[in-house]
Amino acid sequence: MSERSYASGSSDLPLIGRTIGEDLERTVARQPEHEALVDLPAGRRWSYGQLDEAVDRVATSLIQLGIAQGDRVGIWSPNCAEWVFVQYATAKIGAVLVNINPAYRTHELEYVLNQAGIRLLIAAPSFKTSDYAAMISQVRDQCAALDDVVLLGSDRWSGIASCDVDHSALAARAATLRFDDPINIQYTSGTTGFPKGATLSHHNILNNGFFVGSLLGYTDADRVCVPVPFYHCFGMVMGNLGATSNGATIVIPAPAFDPAATLEAVQSERCTSLYGVPTMFIAELGLSDFASYYLSSLRTGIMAGAPCPVEVMKRVVSEMHMTEVTIMYGMTETSPVSTMTRRSDDIEHRVSTVGTVMPHVEVQIVDPVTGLTSPRGSAGELCTRGYSVMLGYWDAPEQTAQAVDAAGWMHTGDLATMDDDGYVAIVGRIKDMVLRGGENIYPREVEEFLYRHPAIADVQVIGVPDDKYGEELMAWVCLNPGTALTIDDLRSFCDGQLAHYKIPRYLYLCEAFPMTVTGKVRKVEMRERAIEILGLGDPTAVAGVQARTET
């Protein structure tokens, strides 16, 4: 009988049994003068001792404002030092930080404020074209739980950030906290309906951040460039908590992702680690002056949040000096990382898999129909269990029960395989799998092949309705500058390399893909737009869409 697709992560390091506040204070006690946080856009820097004092000022103010343990405090802001202060301050007093997507509009804001029962909202006054203050005013009367709003940069915030620290009040509150308490709500970027609020504990996110940083080899010599959003696990867990729990330095390159600002931060701050989703790395590599940046300080980092193209990964290793770059797999509901490549893995494993199971975590791959653990090498649904699985969706027990089974396994909805050595490869989403004329097609496989075409900078493959085959493939393509591509070019490139049914029927040239703020491609939206375009009639007559003739 073949071995089953199950693995558990061993470790010489035990799980951390502390709250986030306690863990920060341990790092502060060890290295109070070491640089903890650099906010480049604001030109400000904090040592660990200074960071802890700034956090304690905000924490004291929150207690004085009447924020009790378990109260929800919302944060609606792009990346900045104040975001970090609020993250650790709420943890120190046991308030539940609710991360609000910077891209939300009034309808989504109102939903989150009410669904989480946010009592205090801390927000930037505006960002880019979004007038946050005006949007808050529009919905505030419809949010019964919302008692107070504080805008960053206002006189009220200045008072909060500069108040005297009440050490006795903070100590009294800390004495009531448990590391299993809920401390954070993160709303999943749902593609249909309203998002769900994954509720996470100190234990969930502190340990995940620590073990990510530990496996990256973080010490106080590391400087971590974090261009990914704090509002998501990638920024606040893998970035902030991964750094502070291992004594490294957090570097904020810009309020939101900017490829030039990111590389400038790496260069000027001598960063050793860089984070990003694949589209971010593609944008950085695509800068016309990319070769002028001095990036030799880099050694490691994370490429995650979306499928990682092999060719892009190879360029990151060779041209950005990130020889120890890792790929990780996870989801908000699992704090987030479940599997990770290791720095010692050979290049093949680091470009073709999402690594092996994390310490103290279990993963298995199950048959989506029977629920039985699949044999090694067989595709099935990836499930994960352990300390990292969320406490549940906030105030949504039925949705929680649908995601986490009676045995504690989180069902990810991702299709994966596990090889004989325990390496996991993601082959697609259960919902993304295309069924064409009885053939199961995993878009990830087709995308990886198409990345090899010299004209293609980025590509996403989706299924669209077809009267004859049920579904057909459409490739959305972003071209490299100065190149061109036709559907006939694409077919010629694929002929003899891919089975005929895997060759896209439709080609759509675009400037960018519809994305979430965390860099995940919204394939549901792409399908909706594709169906609308194709429904207009002959696709060859629709601007931007090319179709090949069936043979």
Q: Tally the helices.
A: 17
What is the third-level CATH name, the topology of the domain at 50-178? Rossmann fold
Gap between N and C termini, in Å? 43 Å
Structural class by secondary-structure content:
alpha/beta
Main beta sheet strand tally, sense and closure: 9 strands, mixed
User: How much helical structure, as a percent, in the residues?
Assistant: 25-40%
Q: pLDDT below 50 for ≥5 consecutive residues: which ranges? A: 538-543
What is the C-alpha radius of gyration, as a whole number of Å? 24 Å
> From the 3D coordinates, which CATH architecture of the domain at 50-178 would you assign?
3-Layer(aba) Sandwich
Question: Could you characterize what this model shows?
Answer:
The chain is 31% helix and 24% strand. It contains 17 helices and 27 strands. A nine-stranded mixed beta sheet has the order 3-2-11-10-12-13-14-15-16, sandwiched between helices. A seven-stranded mixed beta sheet has the order 7-6-4-5-8-9-19, with helices on both faces. The model is unreliable at 538-543 (pLDDT under 50).
Could you list some keywords that capture this structure?
551 residues; alpha/beta; Rossmann fold; GMP Synthetase, Chain A, domain 3; 9-stranded mixed β-sheet; 7-stranded mixed β-sheet; 31% helix; globular
